Amino acid sequence: xxxxxxxxALLPFLNDLHDAWQQVRVPVLLSVAFSLVLLRIYLRAxxxxxxxKTLPRKFADNPATGKESLVRDAKIKPQTETTAExxxxxxxxxxxxxxxxxxxxxxxxxxxxxDQGPRQIQPLVFFSSITANTPKISHEFAQRLHADLHPVSSxxxxxxxxxxxxxxxxxxxxxxFVAPPKAKEGIELLYLFLFPxxxxxxxxxxxLEHLKETHHDFRIDTAPLSSLLGYSVFGFGDREGWPTxxxxxxxxxxxxxxxxxxxxxxxxxxPIGMGDTKRDYARRxxxxxxxxxxxxxxxxxxxxxxxxxxxxxxxxxxxEEDIEDVDDEDDGEVQVDDSRTKPQKPKKxxxxxxxxxxxxxxxxxxxxxxxxxxxxxxxxxxFTTYDKSTTSKGRAAAQPTIKEMVPKNSPTYASLTxxxxxxxxxxxxxKICRWTxxxxxxxxxxxxxxxxxxxxxxxxxTTPSLSCSNKCVFCxxxxxxxxxxxxxxxxxxxxxxxxxxxxxxxxxxxxxxxMAGVRADRYAEALRIRHCALSLVGEPIFYPHINEFLAMxxxxxxxxxxxxNAQHPDQLAALKAVTQLYVSIDASNRESLRxxxxxxxxxxxxxFLRCLDILRERRQKQRTVFRLTLVKGFNVDDExxxxxxxxxxxxxxxxxxxxxxxxxxxxxxxxxLSMSNVPWYxxxxxxxxxxxxRLAEKGLRYGIAAEHAHSCCVxxxxxxxxxxxxxxxxxxxKRFFELLEERGPDGDxxxxxYMGPATPEWATWGNGGFDPRDDRVDRKGRKIATx
Length: 787
Ligand SMILES: Cc1cc2nc3c(=O)[nH]c(=O)nc-3n(C[C@H](O)[C@H](O)[C@H](O)COP(=O)(O)O)c2cc1C
Ligand code: SF4
Known about the structure:
Distance between the termini: 131 Å
Number of strands: 20
Shape: elongated
Strand order of the largest sheet: 9-10-11-12-13-14-15-16-18-17
CATH class of the largest domain: Alpha Beta
Low-confidence stretches: 1-5, 47-112, 311-398
Bound molecules: flavin mononucleotide, iron/sulfur cluster
């Protein structure tokens, strides 16, 4: 009862309160709302967005292995983690398809890094294995590599992270071979592979198939790994079971190298290395590793793989995978099919005119020739005496009139550099010959390897005089070189030429490092020039300081093969000792020589014969060679007798007989030369047999010693180089240098004193002459039989 009373007592008060609230509620509610808005604005401005939730774990465990991915320790992670990154990762089986042709535009690893902090490089060493040799080798290799890179780090300021060793059987291939794993900020990746071959089904097949599929998957860029710094492969094999590459030695390493070239946009950092696990793998691996360290040093300094390789910015990148440049033909080499019984037509070469047009060309050029014959020989200016004004003393007096032979701004300079020559100074040149490239790739060396033991990949082809005094119809310099009968240009010092040609040669060799198929061992050897062929273009003995130049070669134990065109007897007589001295014999009689060499000298035939006499005098001390270049329709038919007479006169130690190379230029065509002038190999052989017979009839003791069918070349040798029934055409280079060092450059010794061991069986007459260590390929790089 008292409760009810209390309520009735409070009622008037509550009514008043309610009335009061009704009167003020609108302004009160408005001001509270306004205050809350102000408070919110204040908090936003001060504190930012509060943390809402924790991020998920960044690195997933490797689903393939159940183990935590190794890449976590490598400070890198697969490129599939964040949403943004997911968008860039190619999806293999679902989702919208992305088609993007061509090679991915190169990223920072091509030398232009976005962040300019110190460079950090992470080598990743991938291996596969079934019988457990390779894991151990890989770990040891990684340790050694790390140690070898230490000095590079100190000298370049670049950090090399400890090489990570990864088993291809344990990683998720998608993490590394669809796109490179995303490295931590600033870390760049280099892939190295230690890869055995197996002719049974292994992880290798899965892996290679994966690479192939990635390359062919149209949703993925054709070069999805191009953001890597580069890659290189070392293969393990067993020569006992798989003696040659043709029979399967290291075949999977070669395949891997090929696919990685495609996937990285040809970023082959170092040539492929190959080792026999039972024999030489340690040495081969060390060579390859040296090459890798070398390139890492280059990468550390510049971020690029070097000249000629992708990303270098060099105008010519040497990564054409299988294309042989026909214009590279040098030295009169010719590539024709060597089947003696069933000759096939030589392949048409680049630049050659249409076959239908050859008749016209022949006709036109013949009439050209006839009219030039009517006009007589080119006017002779002077003979081979050097112009006194070209010596440094004379130069000072006659400074204004002396010109450079090949000035930088001349069309000749442009044309020669376009053809691949490096012009050194103002009158010298160096060029990598196609046999050097071929030997680097294990595809055979030039005939000089078969006959004389010249390793083509260690041979520099150069000339200190781009000028000469002939205009031979088969010259492959495309009519661009300067000609003259006397030296009338600035003379560069021999030291500068010597250093310049070596630098030019090495630079070009280095540019070939990334070329498909280059072998690490051959590449390492090529970085030491051992031979010099002074036979490029022009006339080397035209250069006034040729003897000083030769002395420089010999001081570095570089052998010298000097080819002269038999037009400068005075210079030939003054020439000091060379390892092998050649005279080009382009014809057997005056008229034929005029037609084919188109000499500038009016007394060219007399000069020619005097040169043969000089060679005859030299033959006891030095190895002398006649080089015959057979041009069908010009200097072959009915000329055996004439050549036999010339051999009788000069009595050379050797006679090289080879078919002409058709360079397919307008110059050649204008001179009346076409494919029909290139003799078949069997025609060359027939000629050689006829010449041998004729020499025997004359009582001259020569025999067919060796052949190199691959370049259409056969060697006749004097019996002086036959010992106990075996030909000894090889050269003992070491002995040559010893003799030179003991007795001086006037050469008081006999040619036999530096005769080498017996000519290898495979090079002797009847055996083809192709180096059995190498694979013979056609112009497209396809293997062909060597028999
Ligand atoms: C089953 C089998 C197949 C092989 N097939 C080849 C082959 O085709 N070509 C080759 O050069 N080496 C071949 N080899 C040699 C291996 O590549 C070589 O011994 C290598 O070092 C093995 O490495 P691993 O011990 O890490 O497996 C083969 C070896 C084995 C066991
Ligand atoms: S001698 Fe030397 S430069 Fe000449 S073709 Fe042979 S390898 Fe090439």
